[in-house]
């Protein structure tokens, strides 16, 4: 019941949620309710149970036991009936109180077989009034308050007994009658029927009436006490077989059992009951008295189930005697056997019922569990689905967020790259501005610092200033163009013009330069005239830029060809050279504005080409490059013919080429800018104070430095780090001035190499660069640079730094030499290593007669020149002088610390004779070796 209540509670909750659920959930709920209904139906088909109370006067004799068994057997066919049984043990009082107790135990019906008739009237009427149906069984009471009476016809049985005895005694004889309990109805009725029948036999006389009270022991007692009288009778008739056999027993005990015959009532089957006694001859006859047990139960069920019953159910009887006892016994045995079978069957049925009940319960339990599992499963599925949906939504949101994050990251990465590129670009722009600015400021300062200036000198400086001012202008012009392009403000203003004349005009500007550099500059065109729609100003810049680039990278004696031809509905302009060409990487990034490859950004190239591409694209044309390292480069421009691709706005007025170029910068000025020969060396009236190696890739700066410093120093100039290094090794200069930013090996790498090599480690390096950042200075210092000068530099300052560095070097050389000779340490590890090695080799070689500079330089892995220069630079003395110093040092030591002879010391220190040793020693120490040995101190 509890399970059903829980199910109902869940169902209620589900039904209230039903409206808000989807189809799937609703189907699930209907299924659940269906299953629940099934369980409900199973519960409601259960039959009602009843309690039958049975009160019996006694349970002690066979007849009563048979009655109870009959009832029980019948009850097996009615499993919903329970029997509550009470045995009063022949006590009327007890039976009355038992009836009351049965009523209290909530019986639905009372079956009573009362001990006596009158004393039960009251209690039975009370029960009946309470609405409890009453069935009287076997014995009657004095009331009409009962529903049914079931029992044998006792008057008739008494009469049958009278008939039998009348016949048996042939109408004459003496009879003893033994009564049952006289206050019980069977005893009274049996007596009445018997006596009425005997009236038909006047010669049959009832000589004695005894009260046996239905009990064996009572009979035995009363018979024994009156045996003398009784033994004269012919027949004893008792109201039941129990009492007849009890009397027989007393007679038998006294050995007179054959003196009279015995007749009883009941004729029960069974080994010690009436039917067996007739078979044995103990009783002459008996009369079947049915128990009515089955009928009583049957009647009770009908009453309780509301069916009609017969109120007086009189059961029939038959006479049992020697003539029919066998057949009856056989029948009865068979019946007993059948009853036993029935009992067995009913036990089996009971067991099966139990099994069925248990299986049914298990089934219900399983079904309920299944339903609960289904419910929980479906609920879990529902929750899982809901969770999945929520999870999916979250996933989608996550994906969106991740996508947005990736986009933001990509954008910020782009922005970061763009910022970095822009910073790099500005850094290089500054660098590019610094060079022409240096070349304007430096000659201007020079001119201003002089009291008198020659015309030549003035012209040369002004020319340099002008050229660099133009260069600045050009750079600014390019930057303005770039700014416009960047802001999308570049507009095409095309007019239809003859492209042949236009290009010829440009070529003309480069003619003089081509001649000077012996470059084969040609304009090759297949048609005499080619009208094309283009923007003069922009195309002019593009072609001038391409040709100027070709000049930059093409060596003397090379070729630059500009080829023009019509190809379909396009024109093709090619600028070809056989110059140094580009690496594949350089080529791939040729048009990139902020290309940051391995090479430093080249503004004149990168900016110009990036702009060229923008300008050609404005024309809806194409520009591309083919190039191979050391073979040459070809730029190809394709422009569409006609003007259908142009908007009305783009088709502007016809404008003259040069007048239209704002800010004004002619190709000639550009050509002048590119022309190295324009810079004339200025004469400086100063003496030369050392050899300087200048490593600078910018031609103008290199030329300027060569010119400006050439008066004071011997200048060797190189344009790359690699050639600079070669010259440094070859010549061992006194100082190196190098730009940091160089193609290939840069200034920092060059410095590192110089400082790491034994042969060059002593050479001071001054780094010259446009970059002023502290990081660059730190890098320079790490590489071993001695000074760092930022462009644009002041020439006077530069000269001062050069002088100071060289003077310091000299001081240091002197200190270094004396320090080294006195065995104290030096600051430069490479130089110390070099001197250690050199000194060791000299000390070892001294004794050998072949020892000299030649062998020493070979052993050191240097050329004679390198050795001389290195020793000179480090110790400010000749190698030969240094060898002499070592000899003297060793000689001094041997003189002061040993007892070796002069001759021995002379040979050990490499002198061919003691006399030469003495002369040499005195020359250098102002003492003879003997004098020195006597007083070494002070020397
Ligand atoms: C059993 C019995 C039977 C008899 C019946 C009469 O108690 O004495 O022998 O027939 O009761 O009520």
Automatic annotation (TrEMBL):
Residue ranges of every copy of the Histidine kinase domain listed in the record: 428-643
Keywords, alphabetical: Coiled coil, DNA-binding, Kinase, Membrane, Phosphoprotein, Transcription, Transcription regulation, Transferase, Transmembrane, Transmembrane helix
Gene3D superfamilies in the record: 1.10.287.130, 3.40.50.2300, Histidine kinase-like ATPase, C-terminal domain (3.30.565.10), Homeodomain-like (1.10.10.60)
Residue ranges of every copy of the HTH araC/xylS-type domain listed in the record: 836-935
Positions in coiled-coil regions: 335-421
TM stretches of this protein: 363-384
Response regulatory domain ranges (all copies): 691-806
PROSITE patterns for the chain: HIS_KIN, HTH_ARAC_FAMILY_1, HTH_ARAC_FAMILY_2, RESPONSE_REGULATORY
SMART domains according to UniProt: HATPase_c (SM00387), HisKA (SM00388), HTH_ARAC (SM00342), REC (SM00448)
Enzyme Commission number(s) of this protein: 2.7.13.3
Matches recorded under InterPro entries: CheY-like_superfamily, HATPase_C_sf, HATPase_dom, His_kinase_dom, HisK_dim/P_dom, HisK_dim/P_sf, Homeodomain-like_sf, HTH_AraC
One MF annotation (Gene Ontology) recorded for this entry: DNA-binding transcription factor activity
Modified residues (4-aspartylphosphate): 739
Record's catalysed reaction(s): ATP + protein L-histidine = ADP + protein N-phospho-L-histidine
Protein name according to UniProt: histidine kinase
Organism, as annotated: Spirosoma pollinicola
């Amino acid at each position: 019941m509890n399970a059903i209540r829980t199910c109902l509670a869940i169902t209620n909750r589900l039904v209230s949620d039903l409206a808000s659920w989807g189809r799937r959930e609703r189907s699930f709920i209907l299924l659940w309710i269906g299953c629940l209904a099934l369980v409900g139906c199973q519960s409601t088909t259960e039959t009602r149970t009843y309690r039958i109370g049975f009160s019996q006067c006694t349970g002690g004799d066979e007849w009563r036991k048979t009655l109870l068994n009959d009832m029980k057997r019948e009850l097996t066919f009615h499993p919903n009936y329970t029997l509550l049984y009470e045995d009063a043990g022949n006590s009327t009082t007890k039976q009355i109180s038992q009836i009351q107790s049965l009523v209290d135990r909530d019986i639905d019906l009372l079956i009573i077989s009362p001990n006596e008739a009158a004393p039960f009237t009251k209690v039975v009427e009370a029960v009946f009034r309470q609405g409890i149906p009453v069935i009287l069984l076997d014995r009657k009471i004095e009331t009409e308050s009962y529903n049914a009476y079931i029992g044998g016809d006792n008057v008739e049985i008494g009469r049958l007994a009278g008939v039998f005895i009348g016949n048996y005694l042939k109408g004459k004889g003496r009879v003893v009658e033994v009564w049952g309990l006289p206050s019980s109805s069977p005893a009274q009725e049996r007596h009445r029927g018997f006596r009425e029948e005997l009236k038909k036999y006047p010669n049959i006389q009832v000589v004695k009436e005894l009260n046996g009270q239905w009990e064996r022991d009572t009979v035995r007692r009363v018979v024994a006490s009156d045996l003398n009288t009784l033994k004269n009778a012919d027949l004893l008739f008792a109201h039941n077989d129990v009492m007849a056999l009890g009397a027989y027993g007393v007679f038998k005990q006294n050995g007179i059992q054959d003196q009279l015959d015995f007749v009883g009532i009941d004729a029960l089957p069974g080994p010690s009951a009436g039917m067996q006694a007739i078979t044995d001859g103990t009783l002459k006859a008996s009369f079947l008295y049915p128990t009515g047990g089955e009928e009583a139960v049957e009647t009770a069920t009908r009453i309780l189930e509301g069916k009609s019953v017969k109120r007086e159910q009189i059961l029939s009887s038959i006479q049992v005697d020697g003539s029919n006892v066998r057949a009856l016994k056989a029948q009865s045995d068979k019946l007993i056997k059948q009853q036993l079978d029935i009992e067995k069957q009913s036990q089996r049925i009971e067991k099966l019922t139990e099994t069925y009940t248990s299986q049914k319960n298990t089934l219900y339990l399983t079904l309920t569990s299944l339903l609960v599992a289904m419910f929980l499963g479906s609920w879990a599925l529902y929750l899982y689905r809901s969770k999945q949906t929520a999870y999916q939504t979250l996933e989608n949101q996550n994906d969106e967020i991740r996508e947005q994050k990736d986009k933001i990251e990509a954008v910020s990465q782009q922005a970061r790259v763009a910022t970095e590129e822009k910073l790099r670009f500005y850094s290089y722009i500054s660098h590019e501005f610094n060079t022409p600015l240096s070349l304007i400021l430096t000659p201007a300062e020079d001119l201003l610092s002089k009291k008198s200036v020659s015309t030549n000198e003035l012209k040369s400086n002004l020319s340099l200033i002008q050229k660099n001012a133009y260069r600045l202008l050009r750079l600014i012009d390019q930057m303005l163009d770039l700014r416009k392009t960047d802001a999308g403000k570049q507009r095409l203003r095309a007019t239809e013009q003859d492209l042949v004349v236009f290009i010829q005009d440009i070529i003309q500007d480069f003619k003089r330069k081509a001649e000077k550099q012996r470059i084969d500059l040609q304009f090759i065109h297949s048609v005499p005239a080619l009208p094309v729609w283009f923007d003069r100003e922009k195309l002019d810049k593009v072609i001038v830029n391409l040709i100027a680039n070709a000049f930059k990278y093409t060596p003397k004696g090379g070729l630059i060809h500009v080829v023009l031809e019509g190809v379909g509905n396009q024109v093709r302009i090619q600028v070809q050279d056989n110059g140094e060409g580009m690496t594949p990487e350089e080529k791939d990034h040729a048009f990139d504005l902020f290309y940051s490859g391995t090479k430093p950004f080249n503004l004149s190239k990168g900016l110009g080409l990036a702009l060229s591409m923008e300008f050609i694209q404005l024309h809806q044309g194409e520009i591309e490059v083919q190039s191979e390292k050391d073979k040459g480069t070809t730029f190809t421009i394709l422009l569409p013919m006609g003007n259908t691709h142009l908007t009305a706005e783009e088709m502007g007025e016809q404008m003259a080429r040069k007048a239209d170029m704002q800010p004004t910068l002619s190709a000639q000025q550009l050509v002048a800018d590119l022309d190295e020969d324009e810079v004339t060396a200025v004469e400086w009236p100063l003496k030369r104070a050392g050899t300087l190696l200048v490593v600078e890739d910018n031609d103008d700066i290199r030329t300027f430095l060569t010119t400006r410093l050439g008066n004071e120093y011997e200048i060797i100039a190189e344009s790359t780090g690699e050639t600079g290094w070669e010259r440094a090794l070859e010549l061992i200069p006194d100082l190196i001035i190098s730009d940091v930013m160089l193609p290939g090996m840069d200034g920092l790498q060059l410095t590192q190499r110089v400082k790491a090599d034994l042969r060059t480690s002593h050479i001071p390096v001054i780094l010259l660069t446009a970059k002023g950042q502290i990081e660059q200075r730190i890098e320079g210092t790490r590489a071993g640079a001695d000074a760092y000068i930022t462009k644009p530099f002041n020439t006077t300052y530069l000269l001062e730094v050069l002088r100071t560095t060289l003077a310091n070097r000299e001081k240091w050389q002197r200190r270094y030499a004396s320090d080294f000779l006195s065995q104290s340490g030096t600051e430069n590890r490479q130089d110390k290593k070099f001197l250690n090695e050199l000194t060791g080799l000299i000390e070892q070689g001294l004794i050998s007669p072949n020892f000299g500079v030649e062998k020493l330089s070979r052993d050191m892995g240097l050329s004679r020149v390198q050795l001389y220069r290195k020793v000179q630079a480090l110790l400010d003395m000749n190698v030969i002088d240094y060898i002499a110093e070592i000899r003297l040092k060793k000689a001094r030591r041997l003189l002061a610390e040993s007892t070796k002879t002069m001759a021995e010391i002379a040979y050990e220190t490499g002198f061919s004779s003691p006399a030469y040793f003495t002369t040499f020693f005195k020359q250098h120490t102002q003492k003879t070796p003997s004098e020195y040995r006597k007083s070494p101190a002070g020397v």
